[in-house]
Amino acid sequence: MIFKINSTFDFYKYSRLFNIISILLVTLSFFLLLFKGLNYGVDFKGGTLIELRVMDENINISNIRRSFLRMNLGDVNVKKFGNETDYLIKFETTETENVNFIQEIQNKLTKDIGNSYNFRRVENVGPKVSGELLKSGIIAILLSLSAMLIYIWLRFEWQFSLGAIIALIHDVLITLGFFSILNLEINLSIVAAVLTIVGYSMNDTVVIYDRVRENLKKYSSKKIDELTNISIHETLSRTIITSVTTLLALLSIFIFGGEILKGFSFAMILGVIFGTYSSIYIANPILRFLKVSPKTIIKEEK
Amino acid sequence: MLYFTKLNVVITYCFIILISFFTFSNFLSNENNIVNKKINLGLDLQGGSYLLLEMDIDPIVLQKLQNKLIPLKKNLINNKIKFKNIKISEKKINLEIESSSIDKFIELYENKENGINTYLDQYKSFEFDYTIDEQKVSIFYSKFGIIRLKNSSIDHALEIVRRRIDELGTNEPNILKRGNDRILVELPGLDDPTRIKTLLGKTANLTFRFVSQQEEESFGSEKLFFEEDSEEALVSKRIILSGDNLIDAQPRMDNETNETVVSFTLDRLGAKRFGKATTDGVGRRLAIVLDNKVISAPVIREPIVGGGGQISGGFTFQSATDLALLLRSGALPAPLNIIEERTVGPDLGQDSINAGLISLIIGFSLVILFMILKYRFFGLIANVALIVNLFLLIGILTIFEATLTLPGIAGIILTVGMAVDANVLIYERIKEELKIEKNKIIAFDDGYKNSKSAILDANITTLISTIILFFLGSGPVKGFSVTLGVGILTTLFTVYFLARQLTSFYIYKNKDNNIKI
User: Fold this and answer.
1) Are A196 and B484 inside 8 Å of each other by CB?
2) What is the mean pLDDT of the segment spanning B333-361?
3) How far is CA A41 from the centre of its chain?
4) What is the bridge-based pairing of β-strands B206-210 and B241-242?
5) In chain B, which residue's Cα lies nearest the Cα of A150?
6) Given a cut of 70, is residue A1 above it in pLDDT?
7) Beta-carbon separation of A203 and B341 below 8 A
8) What percent of chain B has pLDDT above 70?
9) 20 to 30 A Cα–Cα from B411, which one of B84, B131, B428, B490?
10) Class of domain A47-125
11) CATH number assigned to the domain covering B206-342
């Protein structure tokens, strides 16, 4: 066996410590989101994004930046994008009236740095569309959280549902907190990642909850503290194996999947780590806190 | 029980073979392919342009109100309602009605058969709403009136957009209506959409009007700029001919002047009107106006009665070709604005495909290796299920001719990582059951039985979030939800049919040996 898991380990020994860490991280994330906010990409903020590849070694980032600054496009952000020869340029101006907008930028750039470059990608999102995308992204996340809440409520009991949802919010907040503090860009694929995290974290929590429910029936005399501890132990090897295989797949995307999927896979990696952690240290302690007992389940079985 | 009917086994394999057939059809060339279905590559993988256009309804509203003014006046007079100061401002018709007539006005407008304000049965609303502030009355489009107007205009606009793009001969364009005022245009393989954007950005409202000689003219006149410079011309509002009367337009070289021109052919009505106007107006200047800009205003030297003519205006061959194309495909009912554009060059698309494939192969290999190290023989079974799973996933995406995007590839890789979860749950459960149950067959059976609810719940929750993503996500992200969602279903199938059959087969063969999991 690869993993020799010490089956006498008491998960609640360090429970208090982890609770404090979680509360700290969630509070920190919350304040980061409130005061620092997120670095929205053009999808949600509107604006123009150009991915540019240069073929001439003499062209460097400051040439490009100077040329773009001269075009009066407002706040221009130029940075390297993966490769040595690739750059990502972002600015808030969009073409709403002028259909030759990109053409004109190309002409001015050619005048400044020559023509040994090409535009690999151009994204241009008007303010109306970006507002709608942001709205539908938020709705999607809220909707999936509520759908989970209802599903778990139907399948288990409200205590379980509450525990699972708090764990989910914990994961989503901390993931977004990381994006805020590292100033990583939030775009459409990050919303997809957050939704997948919701699904994954739920998946993990449900497996342990399913065992808790089973053990509640099996050992009607045992206390919930001991029951959750047993259940976590019994499912632990599965929890670890699935996290490992999922992380292997995600690391492969993160390392080899190209620049465009970097943010997405990074968010997912964070989500899987915190999702696994939260199903053990958030979702289950809440069952203890809510004093779940065999009676909770028996009501359901009537 | 760990027992399968032969039928069950046969159906499982038939299903797998059938779907795999579609999987392989992706790798065959079109000629020797029977099913002829392939996964579509999204614009982010094959390169191309995505444009979202929004129709600006205001000019139509204004024009419709303008047209309504005369019938409205007539209607009020016929009903003996006294009014004054009727004019249009801020998308409303404003007028003052004498206090004695106000009640009559309300009575008339609340009546569904008033002959002027159509009652829309399907929306249970009038076309126009009105407000009354003492004597001041404002009449404007109701919410549903606007919806109806948008619906009819967008269909017309869609048709024109389609014609213009077809004229350019772009490779398999995808043109769709979005809501009641938007048009989505997808142009695979196009890495520079400037020309298409220029063509779609023009309303192409062509009119022929006389240049006014004096300020006063019965129809009124307006000052319009020339296309090329800031010169102005005073042009009559009376329209002699509009683009609607054109049946053909082509770019041409004028042999005499050596200039590129656009020659046009008129329909019968147009030819008659044009002939009459040019006969009457010899010596006058005729302005050719496109989207409220004067292209040129030549002097009429002789009557043009042949039903055709030509427009000159310092065109290059390209601009003449574009103008001819616009005139042939007709005017848009309202201007279209580009509110979202995403263009991916073909080399970036290819790079993304390569990166996606490499990470798929590496992720897949790592997971397979891990499972063999962890579960030995049973890991092998799980891996067979995983490989078949991948085949089924691609096969089903092919059947639905789904669009594969870069996030979609990420969805496949993620499916690979998460697909083994179900088998892991089962194997871990079996391990536990083996500790308490000596009979191996019963232990395996219990392992499957007792892990079922956890597996179902876990997969349904993931499925819920992919369904939400499918309905609320857009573009490439939608592709992600499709692959992840289909992946969950194929995973459940391979785990509960294929892997389970293989496992039971092995257990029956070795029920008395020492089985290590």
Assistant:
1) yes
2) 92
3) 15
4) antiparallel
5) B461
6) no
7) no
8) 97
9) B428
10) alpha beta
11) 3.30.1360.200
